[in-house]
Amino acid sequence: MEGQPDEKLRNEMEGQPDEKLRNEMEGQPDEKLRNEMEGQPDEKLRNEMEGQPDEKLRNQDRMDHEREPAEDEWRSWHRGQVRNTLHLISAAAQWILLLACLIYLGIDSLQPSMSQRGKVPWTYIHYTGKSFKGAAVNLTAEAGSMQIRNGSIVMPCDGLYLVSLKGHLFAQNLLKLTLKTDNILWEQTVNRSSAVNLITVLFLFQQDNITLSTSSEAIISHLSISLVLQSSVDDDVKCHM
After folding, report:
1. Is residue 105 assigned to a domain?
2. Count of H-run helices and E-run strands, the chain
3. Into how many domains does the chain fold?
4. Closest by Cα among 193, 151, 149 to 170
5. Is 125 in the same domain as 217?
6. pLDDT tens across 116-170, in order?
7. What is the C-alpha separation between 65 and 44, in angstroms, rounded?
8. Closest to 166 (Cα-Cα) out of 138, 191, 139, 199
9. Measured on CA atoms in the order 180, 239, 199, 127, is the torsion positive or negative?
10. Strand, helix or coil at 227?
11. What average pLDDT does the chain have?
12. What is the Cβ-side half-sphere exposure of residue 165, based on CA atoms within 13 angstroms?
């Protein structure tokens, strides 16, 4: 109000520069420039020179440390999965090999050598045709020493028999295929079109009559039945053939 200019303006009017200008005029640089001239780096550069990483670098290191245990855990889990898979494959291969050996031994037993055919009771039957509800399939032997009587296979002696039954059935409805003597030895429910594949060992008695029947009318294609005596109860008793 009294018209008195401020100190800075007064200094300029009187020809006196401010402190910063005086320092520059007097050859005195500011603090940052003095630090650079004196070889003193700024705070960020000092931290890096003193081994103190900045905040971004510290965060990156912390994330790397947190990621390493998770990666180790995943690798350990993956290795465990690979080991389990290899164990399963090995077990499956062993079971397949064992099954193949059993099938080979069974087929080999169903085809006796020429030297055994005169001693071991056996039979081979092949059938293609119709079957009727409740009626026994009219079986006839193609080879072997066992008797076939009225379409039934007659057992020559007591003992264990290896039995094989294979073929295809075609029917309009579900039906049961039955292998029996006085009692049911084996039974399978068959769909309208289904394959039959049986290999088993049965204990049968002398003079048992084995028959094959279906619960309804069906068409049987390429049915084969094989029986081979594996061991008799008394080897000294001659089988009736």
Report:
1. no
2. 6, 10
3. 2
4. 193
5. yes
6. 445 788 999 999 999 888 888 988 888 988 999 888 999 999 999 999 999 998 9
7. 25
8. 199
9. negative
10. strand
11. 76
12. 23
